[in-house]
Specification:
The complex is a heterodimer.
Chain A lengths: L5 H6 L12 H21 L5 H20 L1 H21 L10 H7 L1 H24 L4 H33 L11 H23 L5 H20 L17 H30 L10 H16 L9 H20 L1 H7 L3 H33 L8 H21 L6 H24 L10
Helix pairs in contact in A: 2-3, 3-4, 4-7, 5-6, 6-7, 6-9, 7-8, 8-9, 8-10, 9-10, 10-13, 10-14, 10-16, 11-12, 14-15, 15-16
Chain B lengths: L14 H10 L2 H20 L6 H18 L9 H30 L7 H4 L4 E7 L4 H14 L3 E8 L5 E9 L2 H23 L2 H9 L19 E2 L6 E8 L3 E9 L2 E20 L5 E12 L5 E7 L4 E3 L2 E10 L3 E8 L7 E6 L3 E6 L2 E11 L3 E3 L16 H6 L14 E3 L3 E7 L5 E7 L11 E7 L7 E6 L7 H11 L1 H15 L5 H19 L13 H12 L5 H26 L9 H17 L6 E9 L2 E9 L2 H21 L3 E9 L7 E9 L4 H15 L8
Helix pairs in contact in B: 2-4, 4-7, 7-16, 10-14, 11-12, 11-14, 12-13, 12-14, 14-15
The chains are: A mainly alpha, B alpha+beta.
């Protein structure tokens, strides 16, 4: 260490090169990705147009980069690939086997995997919350929550992959990537949000935020279950002509990276506000919790026109659970705040999430414009969904401006991020429910 | 703070001018504009855009609809004030770039090696140490090289110190892309707005102001529209629609304006060879495609092309998109089936979109042929998922099982069937009131046991169709029903039917009972046929409702149920005689008294009863048709597109650069250590344009690598 001769000077570099940090696992992963990708390319090239080929080829380096960037992703990728291939192999080209083969029926077929995912996301949320009140066991409980969340993500991805295959089994003209309707994108939302959270969890070394982030994921899962059980929305539907485009493979996931990270940042902002107001005894200063409670209880109102149909009671239960959670947070706020990381860390996670979300939301909106130019004849037609995407974009652009230029942070930034969730949710769901337009694929 | 948010400060001109320039180029002004754009956009999504004025009056009343029109809230996105705000945004952002560019360029050139040593102590990220056995110059060269190898821009400066010794200042800068990102993202906003404004309808509107063009408000044929409403093929930017029927050509697009239309001449004409629409088995559309030939109007060149959704064609800078489809004037042959007693059957031919007058003595109706649909896929699945399921049963296991497995199953099974062509038409009376009808060409088995013709009717477009279900007879036609209706209207035939009925069922030994039965049967049949009113103020004209009204008026409540069932049975039997008499008249064999005949009778009787509510004297049945489809294309010339796309690219690059590249400046001051010859004392400081936790990490790494300082917290 103390040698300062010129020989060491020349060999030392400021940043180790990226490739030199690769270990054997990284290279094995890269090889597997390349092998799998090229196999798919050779085998299915005849069924793809040139853009789809480019996307497939581009996916390979992207997957390798992601796996190298954060190794757990590589493990996840391999597990999902293995499970999906097992599922696909078990089908042997016959959809009916989903009801007869044990593995398919209870684990690997898309619906089973997604139902398991739902259960695991709920369990993960519970364990994360138990972490706040678990005393000496807190760390173990949170670690368990984290592992369950990983498993849920793996199942969500497996379910998605198998669903993709199932759609092709339904008919050669029906097969498509499962990001085409509200049901499918809700699954996408759940795993993307969780995955981003898990990344920040490992990067900042704190698991306490999981309780908050998994709340929003659980809410999404709650909606997903209602959508499946009451609305039967899980059936694979063929694509209308406007959706038959390779743009969908890029536009939708990019959008949901945005939605997911915006939701994540809002939940971190919520944690920030709890931390700040932990010592508060005046009830009117506890507004964020009150607001959350009120907002959650109002969700059923949005669905009230459908209250007559079966499943109306579903939303009553939903509201009751939300009220219980809000009350729980209210009662345990001191203990929760004590376990939450420092405000600077919360602030940093909030910023990071919004930054990545904003960047991808920009890409998604631009891709959407390019697609619209092909499908609807104009890159911008002030469709309600487009307009609301613009509003969401402007909202976060203003947030980032205020933070980066004016140094805005703390309570105001947190409130703003929380309000951002309301805007995002309206753009995501509200537009589909209350406004009509060209983006009618996700109607409720 | 590296980028200023204040406005541009000009030093010349009057005070007001200077204030205005400062305001326009400040960030607060831009943010205020964006807020207004946000609010206006929200209004635009909530308030339906581009509807006819009457709709707003209906929805909001005359006062507010006036206000909305005055503020152009019915077309927010092309309102003058909205465009003006966009223009201001362009100006403001341009000024912002103009103001900051020189500053950024200056910053990019320098590493600020002339910084005073004392000012390093003011930085929050600062480290001091003594480098053992390394003279300042050697240390400076080592550090400089390391930094340069790590992508920093480095300068070394030797400074003379008091005692003839020399100190070395290493100044370095990294992450200059951040500032370039700022420029890229902000110029992107300008480019996108300018491109968008150019592609909007500003150019078209300018032609109405400057070029003597005016909006056309009349109707009629396109060819008859005078030239002042036509825009030249050289028009640089437009967006319009064009309808081309199969086998025909069109070369004039229609640009919808808020108060009328403008016609856009295209440099080519589009000939539609064939319009293809393809469906999935669920009835969802799978493919819309048009096979066209583009005829160049100058050179006469012919270019074949296929236009699909998501696959537009492009010719001479004009993009052609598949936008929708319509009827291109299909010809249909309809047969009028009498629904009122006075009507007579007749046949009529017409084309979709045209109208005809039909008269029936006193009243005349206008028949408008509105839609021919060749394929109608409907869901015949039972909503409860099987008739034998007890709906009270909470079968969680079955609920769950039906949702496990592959995603092709559903709890509610659907049965989708194509039920064949249908004709949609309107009947408009002398007062201008219209009712809509939709009749299916072939009978459909909807689960009644006998195929039925569906005759739909609705009063208003927002209502669903209500269907009269007319059973098909053993020949599969509506004639059986029509004959029976006619027979029922015939008093003599009714009497004959009652006679036959009495002869069949009455006990010849008890004539007084037979007489009683005859009276009841005659009465019931007359009521049903509508020839006798149930009571003086009866609302019904016949059918089961007349029977019900009669019972209400004449039978005490306690006995109604029993008397009713007797009456229904009698009536059913008599109506069966009517049915067979009507067949006999037409020279057909009578129907046997079996279950099949009974099903037909039940349906026919129901249909006759319901037909009293049918609001038209005739139902028009589709006899024959020849479908001609038309394709609706959107044609657009949008040269601003490329500018917008360039802007989008810059925007993405700029945002990534701004968010993920941190601009850092680093200084290391190396002076001979006071007490130890050969060693140097090092002071390192870093400034970053934004504060976050990454900076602390990086600074710790630099301390370790450059100055060999090891913090305990470092991983």
């Amino acid at each position: 260490m103390t040698t300062t001769t010129s020989t060491t000077t020349t060999t030392l570099t400021l940043n180790e090169s990226w490739l030199s940090r690769r270990n054997a696992f990284d290279w094995v992963f890269a090889l597997l990705v390349l092998a799998g990708g090229l196999f798919a390319f050779v085998r299915y090239a005849h069924a793809m147009d040139v853009y789809e080929k480019v996307i497939l080829l581009g996916t390979m380096p992207a997957a390798i980069w992601l796996g190298w960037f954060w190794r757990p992703l590589a493990v996840l990728g391999l597990v999902v690939a293995g499970a999906s291939l097992l599922g696909i192999a078990s089908y042997q080209g016959d959809l009916g086997r989903a009801d007869t083969v044990f593995w398919l029926k209870y684990f690997l077929s898309s619906q089973s995997a997604i139902l398991w995912m739902s259960v695991l996301f709920f369990m993960s949320t519970v364990f994360y919350w138990l972490g706040f009140f678990g005393g000496s066991q807190s760390d173990a409980l949170e670690a368990l929550g984290s592992r369950i969340a990983w498993t849920a993500v793996a199942l969500a991805l497996t379910g998605t992959m198998v669903r993709w295959y199932e759609s092709h089994l339904l008919g050669p003209d029906i097969g498509h990537i499962p990001v085409s309707n509200l049901y499918e994108v809700f699954v996408l939302f759940c795993w993307i949000t969780t995955l981003f959270y898990l990344y920040y969890e490992s990067r900042y070394g704190t698991r306490t935020l999981g309780a908050f982030v998994m709340l929003v994921v659980s809410a999404a899962v709650g909606f997903l279950l209602w959508y499946t059980l009451v609305r039967d929305a899980h059936q694979i539907q063929p694509l209308v002509p406007a959706l038959q485009s390779w743009w969908m493979k890029l536009h939708v996931p990019a959008n949901f990276i945005g939605y997911g990270t915006f939701a994540l940042s809002a939940m971190v902002a919520f944690a920030y506000l709890i931390k700040q107001q932990a010592g508060e005894t005046r009830w009117y200063r506890l507004t964020p919790i009150w607001l959350l409670g009120v907002a959650l209880c109002f969700v059923p109102v949005a669905f009230r026109q459908r209250a007559q149909e079966a499943g109306g009671s579903y939303w009553v239960v939903y509201a009751a659970i939300s009220a219980l959670i809000a009350a729980g947070i209210l009662l345990g706020r001191k203990r929760i705040a004590a376990r939450l990381p420092a405000p600077q860390v919360l602030d940093d996670v909030m910023y990071k999430a919004i930054a990545v979300g904003f960047a991808f939301f920009t890409i998604a909106t631009v891709l959407g414009a390019l697609w619209a130019a092909d499908a609807w004849g104009g890159y911008w037609s002030w469709d309600p969904k487009e307009t609301w995407a613009l509003i969401v974009w402007l909202n976060y652009a203003a947030w980032l401006h205020m933070r980066l230029v004016k140094g805005l942070r703390g309570t105001v930034a947190a409130w703003w991020a929380l309000a951002g969730l309301a805007v995002t949710t309206f753009a995501f769901l509200g537009v589909n429910m209350f406004l009509s337009g060209l983006h009618s694929y996700g109607t409720l | 703070m590296s980028v200023s948010t204040h406005g541009l400060r000009v030093h010349r001109g009057p005070h007001a001018w200077r204030v205005a320039v400062e305001l326009f180029s400040s960030m607060r002004f831009a943010i205020a504009l964006l807020t207004v754009i946000c609010i206006a956009s929200i209004i635009g999504t909530v308030l339906k855009q581009g509807e006819p004025g009457a709709n707003y009056v209906n929805q909001f009343g005359p006062f507010w609809s006036q206000v909305f029109r005055a503020a152009q809230l019915d077309s927010v996105y092309s309102a003058w004030w909205f465009l003006l705000i966009l223009l201001f945004l362009v100006v403001s952002t341009s000024l912002c770039i103009w103001r900051n560019t020189p500053h950024i360029v200056r910053e990019l050139r320098t590493v600020k090696e002339d910084i005073r040593v004392n000012s390093l102590r003011a930085f929050s990220q600062r480290a001091e140490t003594t480098l053992q056995g390394e003279a300042p110059e050697a240390a400076a060269r080592r550090i400089g090289q390391l930094l340069a190898g790590g992508g920093w821009k480095v300068k070394l400066q030797q400074r003379e110190l008091a005692e003839g010794a020399a100190g070395w200042m290493v100044a370095a800068r990294a992450g200059g892309a951040h500032k370039l990102g700022y420029l890229a993202a902000h110029s992107a906003i300008v480019l996108v707005c300018l491109g968008g404004l150019f592609d909007g309808d500003l150019v078209v509107r300018a032609q109405t102001w400057l070029n003597g063009k005016s909006v056309y408000q009349g109707g009629g044929l396109i060819a008859d529209v005078p030239p002042q409403h036509r825009l030249s093929p050289a028009n640089p930017t437009f967006r319009g629609n064009i309808l081309v029927p199969e086998g025909q050509q069109a070369s004039v697009a229609i640009l919808n304006q808020s108060d009328g239309v403008l016609l856009q001449e295209l440099p080519f004409s589009i000939e539609l060879k064939k319009f293809i629409v393809d469906y999935y088995s669920t009835g969802m559309p799978k493919l819309f495609a048009s096979e066209v030939v583009l005829h160049d109007r100058e050179t006469g060149e012919q270019v074949p092309a296929r236009i699909e959704v998501n696959h537009p064609a492009s010719y001479k800078g004009v993009e052609i998109y598949q936008s929708s489809f319509d009827d291109g004037g299909s010809s249909v042959k309809l047969k009028a089936v009498p629904m009122g007693a006075a009507a007579k059957p007749f046949e009529i031919e017409g084309t979709i979109g045209s109208s005809a007058r039909i008269t029936n003595g006193s009243d005349a109706l206008t028949l408008e042929f509105t839609a021919l649909r060749v394929i109608n896929v409907e869901n015949f699945g039972s909503p409860q998922g099987g008739s034998a399921v007890d709906v009270r049963k909470v079968d969680l296991r079955q609920q769950l099982e039906s949702r496990l497995g592959a995603a092709h199953k559903s709890g509610q099974e659907k049965e989708l069937r194509n039920i064949g062509p249908s004709i949609g038409y309107k009947l408009r009376d002398a007062a201008g009131q219209a009712r809509e009808f939709q009749n299916y060409m072939v009978p459909v088995d909807t689960g009644d046991g006998v195929p039925v013709y569906l005759l739909g009717v609705r009063e208003r477009p927002e209502e669903p169709f209500r269907y009269l279900r007319v059973p098909a007879d053993d020949q599969g036609s509506m004639d059986g029903f029509i004959r029976m209706r006619a027979a029922l209207a015939d008093g003599a035939l009714r009497g004959k039917a009652v006679d036959q009925y009495i002869a069949r069922v009455a006990d010849s030994k008890r004539p007084e009972l037979a007489e009683q039965l005859r009276v009841s049967a005659t009465r019931a049949l007359a009521l049903f046929a509508g020839s006798e009113r149930a009571r003086a103020d009866a609302t019904s004209q016949g059918g089961w409702q007349a029977i019900a009204e009669f019972m209400e008026a004449n039978v005490p409540e306690g006995e109604r149920e029993r008397a009713g069932s007797v009456l229904v049975r009698i009536l059913n039997d008599v109506l069966f005689e009517v049915l067979n008499l009507s067949r006999q008249q037409a020279g057909l064999a009578p129907l046997p008294a079996d279950e099949k005949s009974q099903t037909f009778l039940t349906q026919a009787v129901l249909a006759i009863s319901d037909a009293y509510f049918y609001p038209a004297p005739v139902a028009m049945m589709l006899e024959d048709f020849k479908q001609v489809q038309a394709s609706v294309f959107q044609v657009a010339r949008a040269p601003g597109k490329n500018i917008v796309y360039l802007g989008c690219l810059l925007l993405i690059i700029g945002i990534f650069a701004m968010l993920y590249v941190r601009e850092r400046r680093l200084w290391v001051w190396l002076a001979p250590a006071a007490a130890q010859p050969g060693a140097s004392s090092a002071t390192m400081a870093m400034s970053v344009n934004r504060k976050n936790l990454d900076n602390d990490r990086e600074f710790e790494q630099l301390e370790r690598k450059l100055l060999a300082i090891h913090k305990e917290s470092a991983p």
